[in-house]
Structure formats: C-alpha cells, structure tokens
Design goal:
- With 188 residues, the protein is mainly α.
- It contains 8 helices and no strands.
- Belongs to the calponin family.
- GO terms for molecular function: actin filament binding.
Length: 188
C-alpha cells in the first residue's frame, strides 16, 4: 500500500508533484457522484485526493460499478483487504473497462490506484467509462461521444479531387534557377 513506500525526494518528488498537479477535484467529485448514482451505494463524494483514494483503493466499488453497467462482467469480487486480493479487484475492473469499450490509453495501471501513484489517470479512466455507460442504457458523464459520420464519394468526385494541388504542397510561382552555381567555383 502507499504507506509502505519511502517518501520520494529529488527528481522523483518533483515528478510526483507534476503528476499530482494534473489531478482535478471537480472531475473526481463528478466521477464519485456518478458511481454513487449507478451503484446506489452511499459513499463520500468529496473530490479531494485522500477521499478519492480511500473510497476506491480496494477495488470492490469499481467491480460493483462495472457489474451494474453490464451484469456479471466481473465474475468474482474479493472482499478481503489483503493487498493481492485488492489488486486483483482493480485488475478485474480494468479488464472489464476495456471490454466495455474504454480505450487502452485511457486506462490506468493497478499501482496507479493501489499505491496512489497517479490518481489523475484513475479519474480519466472513470470519465471514459462514464461516456461508454450510455451505450448500455446507464446514465453517462462527461462530453457526449461523437457519432460515426461516414461519407461516400462517387468515382467522379474522387477523380476530380486528384487534379487539385493542395496548399500544403507549396508554390513555385516565379521560381527560376538564376544565381545558382552549384559546383562551379569562382574563377580568378
């Protein structure tokens, strides 16, 4: 657990301060409110890091959350407070979140929550899961996901587009080779 780690110093402490500075209490509060709404559990929804960590650290509430979104997605939730069992819960949540559609880059590592290394990444994961919950008939949080907007062009339109030189290509108007004397040395 986080209390067993030595305190960081030097560059490690500076790096940890930068990671902690990204944490948003408003988003954490919104995430906890959403979890309380989905699970029906009465939890403390204060967004400060200490409360956020204490509410989620054993992974039981996270497993209950994904089971409320899609029943039986996590088969076994460990009720033990042993470190290994708690980390198993967190890992089971992460696997379920990926299965529910949370992109891998928006998930976190187990130690980010269990050892309190990066709670901001936990908030990002919950916000992403909150967007995906709408696909399963549950209340969602955060911005609405974009819908697919597929365009179909005719062959004629595609060929017409090939004749246009885009502005990214640049221009050579007025260019010539006067004044260029590569390899030609000055004659005396």
């Amino acid at each position: 657990m986080a209390t067993n780690r030595a305190t960081k110093s030097g560059f490690a402490a500076e790096a940890q301060r930068k990671v902690n500075a990204k944490y948003s209490e408003e988003l954490a509060h919104e995430s906890l409110e959403w979890i309380m709404n989905i699970t029906g559990d009465n939890i403390n929804t204060a967004g400060d890091m200490d409360n956020f960590y204490e509410v989620l650290k054993d992974g039981q509430l996270l497993c209950k959350l994904v089971n409320c979104i899609k029943p039986s997605i996590v088969k076994k939730v460990n009720n033990s407070q042993m470190a290994f069992k708690c980390m198993e819960n967190i890992n089971a949540f992460l696997e379920a979140a990926k299965e529910l559609g949370v992109p891998a880059q928006e998930t976190f590592q187990t130690v980010d929550l269990w050892e309190r290394q990066n709670l901001n990444s936990v908030v990002i994961c919950l916000q992403s899961l909150g967007r995906k919950a709408g696909n399963y008939g549950k209340p969602s949080i955060g911005p609405k996901e974009a819908e697919k907007n597929e365009r179909i062009f005719s062959e004629e339109k595609l060929k017409a587009g090939q004749t246009i030189i885009g502005l990214q290509m640049g221009s050579n108007k007025g260019a010539n080779q006067s004044g260029i004397n590569f390899g030609n040395t000055r004659h005396m």
